[in-house]
Amino acid sequence: MATSSSRNPCQFLDSPTTATHGPINTQPKIRVCNCCVSESSRDQLLKLMLDNIERINELFLNRHLYMTDESIARQQEAERRRKVRILMSIRDMQTAEQQTHMLRMLEKSFAREMDLEKKLTESRLIEEELKLRLLSSEQMFDKADVLSTEC
């Protein structure tokens, strides 16, 4: 009788498969070795994992069918908080160099905006001046027209 120490050192993990729709069933289990997984076992395991991920995604997309309004609100709030945490962690991960670069970019953008505002103001002043000149020219033309008709 062989003892457990004389057995193959590989410890097999049983990985149950799931049906297309529903809970775990009694289909054959995939044998996965911890130390010497064969390529076919690896492919089987990968296929099983991809199938499970697909089912999880399908359940996630259809979760609204099983949720109440209150649980949907809690879920949305949790999702909002998760996004805020991600944004905050991204902000916190920025190095001092990145922050300096960002400040320089903002400073240049602000300078360009100020320059455009100055040019816009100048353009408006030129427009007003041209309108006054046009009005003055029209008045002079009208006076000349009146004088020419009187003579």
UniProtKB/TrEMBL annotation:
InterPro entries the UniProt entry points to: WIT1/WIT2
Region (Disordered): 1-24
Highest taxon, organism lineage: Eukaryota
Protein name per UniProt: Uncharacterized protein
Protein's organism: Acer saccharum
